[in-house]
């Protein structure tokens, strides 16, 4: 398949069939068209396959992958102006794809509350860009065990309807852990949160969740874990500036834990700053035992439970709230950096038993002293870049020695699209741009201790 194809009505790939698309193509879907996959759909073009609406003002019905579509993989695929991608009991793989402008309804008919709606299985979503969708970017239900692997994606400005649809909005997990790793989650709309994991129906099976090395910023809240029977590890994340909705009664937590004593977790090595609240802990009812979350316990045998969080500069209404423990249970938060070396200041930034005798105590001792070190000025690397725009190759002419140089190229969403490391030849580093789609890119080039940044364009 190549060129442009138009689909005017529902197309169904039967369970016995495999459709393999390896060349660049554009597939235009009419407003009545639904792409139903019972068989195996494989898309892996040289550059991209775009699946779009004939008329962007009349979205097509979307994709549906059934349980017999196991083995389907989409790479370098753009899906836009549709009713979303729904996956039922299948482990679909999406890699290096773009999913954008998916709607939640067409006329009076609801489509999906997620641009990518997962129900059952262990689907994998990696290296994708998911933005500008009506509701959640990635969704799974509260009543179907689903354990996606969501890794190295960019999710920006989803929930354009401005409702309570977090950008990653997952229900209960299956027998394997839910993994959310290395993603960039940036909000724009006041009612949309960042990442939510919930067990709203009280399912007895335990959901295992690993949330690590993500950047979550500018959402209504950062990360929320809601309900019981959830075991979470939240490590090495940067959770900042989740304060875009000024109503501190409805959000603003960097991390929120709300549930029962069967919700347990470890929080370590995170940076949590400039949220309306750094961390909030709540119980699901006045009679329930609260979640059991550790923010650092030096007596623990769990090697992850080491603290090493930075919790600072969180607050609202003129008051700093780095932790707000709104439960009667005591918690440990040892070996953390609170942005100050004063125990009195740390105490003033935590709301717990000394502020209300009905609340549990937050054990923040010992704490790590904040060390402010002078940083040497960054050395600038002087170079010339040509041709710009580039077509097949781009040259970086360096004024320094023949020492090895490292080049990192990013697209406009901040996703790394190419890296290159080599020693310059005659003072020049020549890099191929043939694998880059036409457009504008930024770069960072480092040689020894000096760095240069800039932009270049690719044109064909």
UniProtKB/TrEMBL annotation:
Pfam families in the cross-refs: Beta_helix, Por_Secre_tail
SUPFAM superfamilies per UniProt: Pectin lyase-like
Domain Secretion system C-terminal sorting: 385-457
InterPro entries documented for this protein: Beta_helix, PbH1, Pectin_lyas_fold, Pectin_lyase_fold/virulence, Secre_tail
Domain of life: Bacteria
Entries under SMART domains matching the protein: PbH1
Residues of the Right handed beta helix domain: 111-257
NCBIfam families named in the record: Por_Secre_tail
Protein name (database record): T9SS type A sorting domain-containing protein
Lineage: Bacteria, Pseudomonadati, Bacteroidota, Cytophagia, Cytophagales
């Amino acid at each position: 398949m190549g060129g442009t194809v138009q689909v005017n009505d529902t197309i169904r790939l039967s369970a016995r069939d495999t459709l393999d698309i390896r060349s660049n193509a554009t597939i235009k879907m009419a407003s009545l068209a639904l792409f139903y996959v019972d068989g195996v759909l494989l898309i892996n073009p040289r550059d991209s396959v775009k699946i779009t609406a004939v008329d962007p003002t009349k979205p097509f019905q979307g994709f549906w992958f059934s349980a017999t579509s196991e083995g389907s993989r989409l790479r370098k695929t753009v899906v836009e102006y549709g009713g979303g991608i729904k996956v039922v009991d299948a482990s679909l793989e999406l890699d290096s794809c773009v999913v954008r402008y998916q709607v939640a309804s067409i006329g009076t008919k609801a489509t999906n509350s997620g641009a990518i709606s997962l129900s059952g299985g262990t689907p994998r979503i990696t290296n994708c860009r998911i933005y500008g969708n009506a509701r959640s970017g990635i969704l799974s239900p509260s009543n179907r065990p689903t354990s996606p692997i969501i890794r190295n994606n960019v999710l920006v400005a989803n929930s354009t309807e401005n409702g309570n649809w977090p950008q990653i909005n997952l229900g209960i997990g299956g027998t394997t852990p839910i993994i959310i790793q290395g993603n960039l989650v940036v909000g724009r709309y006041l009612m949309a949160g960042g990442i939510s994991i919930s067990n709203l129906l009280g399912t007895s099976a335990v959901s295992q969740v690993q949330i690590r090395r993500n950047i979550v910023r500018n959402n209504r809240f950062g990360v929320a874990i809601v309900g019981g029977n959830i075991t979470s590890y939240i490590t090495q994340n940067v959770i900042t500036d989740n304060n875009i909705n000024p109503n501190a009664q409805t959000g603003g937590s960097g991390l929120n834990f709300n549930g029962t004593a069967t919700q347990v977790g470890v929080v370590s090595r995170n940076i949590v700053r400039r949220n309306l609240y750094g961390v909030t802990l709540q119980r699901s009812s006045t009679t329930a035992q609260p979640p059991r979350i550790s923010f650092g316990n030096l007596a623990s045998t769990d090697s992850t439970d080491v603290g090493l969080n930075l919790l600072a500069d969180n607050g609202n209404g003129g008051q700093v709230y780095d932790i707000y423990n709104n439960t009667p249970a005591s918690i440990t938060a040892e070996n953390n950096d609170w942005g100050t070396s004063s125990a009195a200041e740390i105490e003033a930034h935590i709301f717990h038993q000394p502020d209300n005798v009905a609340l549990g105590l937050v054990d923040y001792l010992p704490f790590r002293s904040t060390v402010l070190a002078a940083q040497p000025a960054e050395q600038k690397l002087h170079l010339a870049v040509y041709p710009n725009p580039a077509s097949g190759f781009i040259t970086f002419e360096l004024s320094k020695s023949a020492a090895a140089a490292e080049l990192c190229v990013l697209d406009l969403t901040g996703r790394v699209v190419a890296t290159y490391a080599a020693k310059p030849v005659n003072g020049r580093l020549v890099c191929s741009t043939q694998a880059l789609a036409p457009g504008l890119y930024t770069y960072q080039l480092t040689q020894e201790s000096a760095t240069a940044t800039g932009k270049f364009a690719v044109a064909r």
